[in-house]
Amino acid sequence: MAAEKVYRASTTAPVNIAVVKYWGKRDAKLNLPTNSSLSVTLSQSDLRTLTTASCSASYPASEGDSLILNGEAADVAGARTQACFRELRARRAALEAADPSLPKLSVLPVRLVSENNFPTAAGLASSAAGFAALVRAIADLYELPASPSELSLIARQGSGSACRSLFGGYVAWRMGDAADGSDSLADQVAEASHWPEMRAVVLVVSAAKKGVSSTSGMQQTVATSGLFQERITNVVPRNMEAMEKAIKERDFAAFAEVTMRDSNSFHATCADTYPPIFYMNDVSRAAIRAVEAINTAAGRTVAAYTFDAGPNAVIYYLEKETEAVVGTLYRTLGEIDGWKAVTTQSLNSSVSLDEGI
Ligand code: ADP
Ligand code: DP6
Ligand code: CO
Question: Residues in domain Mvd1 C-terminal (predicted)?
C-alpha cells in the first residue's frame, strides 16, 4: 500500500485574564453568556497552549477523533468539543465541494496533541488558551480562510472565555442577542500597543485542579444566587462601560478599581450560590491584602488583583511600578509557603495572535 500523506498544523494560543468576568450562561447548548466580558491577553512567553492537529487516510476510520492533553488521552466526545469539530468540518467540506481537486480531509479522523505549559483547570484560563489553540490548529490544518472573528465564534462554543484568546491586547466578548449565537463573539477594544506599559504578575498559589469546574460553577450560580441578578443587570453593564473608557484613556486607577470590584463581585456571587462555592483560599486573601498595602503605601492605585475560578491571583500594574508592586509582593508574601510568581509582558503587539509555527 502506498504511504498515505499525513497533513499537519501546529499553533500556540495565549491565556487571557478577564477584568470584567464572564460568569453565567443564558444558553448552555450554544454556550451563550448572560453578560458581556472584557479581558487582557497575556503574552505567550510564559503561559500558552501548544496544539498540533493532524489527519491522514492512514489513520483508521474506527479510531475517530482523539486528543492527547498533557501526555494523557482526553475526552473529545463532549458536546462542546464536538460542536467545534462540526463547525470546522462543515467549513472544510464546503471548500472541498467548491473545489473537487482539494483532498477530502473533512471525512478523516483528526488527532490532536496539546500541551499547556501552566496548570490545567486551576483557574488560569486553560480552557481559553486550550480551545483557542484547538480551533486554530484545525482551521490551519483545513486551510480555512477564516478570520479571527469567525474562529472566535467557533472557539466560544468550546469554552466561552476561549473566544477572547483569538485576539491580542484588550478584548471584549459581546454577549449578543441573536438566538442562534451568531453575534456572540469577541472583538478587540484596543491594540496592545495602545497601552504597552501594562504588565501582569501571576501568583501561582496552587496548581491543583479546581473542585468545581467553571462550567458547573456558573450553572449553580445562575440557578441559585439572588445576587447574580443584580450583577448581570447593573454591575457588569456599568463595569463594561467604565472599563472601556479606562482603557481608551489609559487611566490605570480607573482600570484597577473596576478590575478589583468586578473580581470581588464575581466571587460574591459564588459565595451567594447555594451551596456556596469558594475559589479563593487564605493565600488568595493574603494577596488581596498585599495589593491593598501596596496601593496605600504608594498613595495611589498602582496594582490591581483579579481572580478567576481558582485561588491563583493575577495582578496588573504598569511597567514603571515593577519594583513597588512585584518587589513588595515578594517581600510581603515571602513567608508564605507554596506560591511562585510568573511575571509576564502582558501584551502581545499583533491584532491577531496567529503565530503559526
Ligand atoms: P480553567 O480555569 O483552567 O480554564 P476550566 O474548568 O474552565 O478551567 O476548564 C478546564 C478544562 O478545559 C479541562 O478540564 C479540559 O477539558 C479543557 N482544556 C484545558 N486545556 C486544554 C487544551 N490544551 N486543549 C483542549 N482542552 C483543554
Ligand atoms: C471566571 O470560559 O472556563 O474565568 O464556557 O463553561 O468553558 P465555559 O467557562 P469558562 O469560564 C471562565 C470564567 C472566568 C471568567 C472569564 O474568563 O471571563
Ligand atoms: Co476556563
Answer: 200-357
Atom of ligand 1 lying closest to residue 126 CA: 3
- Ligand 1 pocket residue status of 49, Cβ below 6 Å: yes
Residues 6+ apart with CB under 8 A from 279: 123, 210, 212, 217, 267, 270, 307, 308, 309, 310, 311
- For ligand 2, whether the C-beta of 82 sits within 6 Å is no
Condensed to tens digits (0 to 9), the pLDDT of residues 222-244 reads 999 999 999 999 999 999 999 99
- For residue 214 and ligand 2, the question of a CB distance below 6 A is answered with yes
The string of pLDDT tens digits covering residues 260-319 is 999 999 999 999 999 999 999 999 999 999 999 999 999 999 999 999 999 999 999 999
Q: Counting beta carbons within 10 angstroms of the beta carbon of residue 177, is it exposed (0 to 12), middle (13 to 18) or buried (19 or more)? A: exposed
- Which residues place a Cβ less than 5 A from the ion ligand 3? 127, 214
Residue type, 182: S
C-alpha cell at 85: 469539530
Buried/exposed code over 138-169 (b: 16+ C-beta within 10 A; e: otherwise): bbbbbebebebebbbbbbbbbbbbbbbbbbbb
CA-closest residue to ligand 1 atom 24: 130
Q: What is the ipTM of this complex?
A: 0.99
φ/ψ bin of 143: left (φ > 0), alpha (ψ from -120 to 50), beta (otherwise): left
C-alpha cell read off for 171: 478584548
Name the phi and psi angles at 57, rounded to 5: -70, -15
Cα(329)–Cα(204) distance, rounded to whole angstroms?
13
Contacts of 349 (CB under 8 A, 6+ apart): 168, 191, 192, 193, 196
Adjacent-strand bridge partners of 52: 10, 113
The three three-digit cell numbers of residue 313, written as one number: 491571583
Which atom in ligand 2 lies closest to the alpha carbon of residue 20?
18
- pTM of the predicted protein model: 0.95
- Tell me, in angstroms, the distance from the centre of ligand 3 to residue 155's CA: 12
Residue with CA nearest ligand 2 atom 14: 308
Ligand 1 in contact with 127 (CB < 6 A)?
A: yes
Return the percent helix, strand and coil in the chain, to nearest 5.
40, 25, 35
120: Cβ below 6 Å to ligand 1? yes
